[in-house]
Amino acid sequence: MTTTDPTTPALTAVPDVPAECLVAARAADAKSGEETVILGMGELLGVTDAFVVTSGRNTRQVKTIVDEVERQVKESSGRSPHRVEGLSDGYWVLMDYGDFLVHVFLDEARAFYDLEHLWTDAPRVAWATAA
């Protein structure tokens, strides 16, 4: 589950992101995705509304997260990704749903590419359900 860090922008429910982003984030969390965040990208990027970013400790977990995200999004909305890149090596898997992208990283790849820092101005969207 996401932890609060004073250097991280505040979570918000304001950005208009597809409901499937919440499904994808919760699916990643169900398979122990680490530090899962949703970034509202609509105002900043213009080509997609949101990024869901998560990571796994090893390639098997990365692939398990990808499978669960795909299964739950399909179950909830009937949608499948237009394209999935990087699944063969499990280093950085990109699932393109058009209006949102899911990035599932191996821990070290996430640290290297650091999308959250690159898109630090993107609002974080609250997605976790109360325990």
Written overview of the protein:
There is one protein chain. The chain is an alpha/beta fold. It has a single domain (11-125), classed as Beta Polymerase, domain 2 (2-Layer Sandwich). Helix content is 32%, strand content 25%. It has four helices and seven strands. The protein has helices at 19-30, 59-77, 107-113, 115-118, and strands at residues 11-12, 34-40, 50-56, 83-85, 92-96, 100-106, 124-125. The strands form two sheets. A five-stranded mixed sheet has the order 2-3-6-5-4. α1 (19-30) runs antiparallel to α2.
What's the multimeric state? single chain
The CATH architecture can be named as 2-Layer Sandwich
Number of domains: 1
Low-confidence region ranges: 1-14
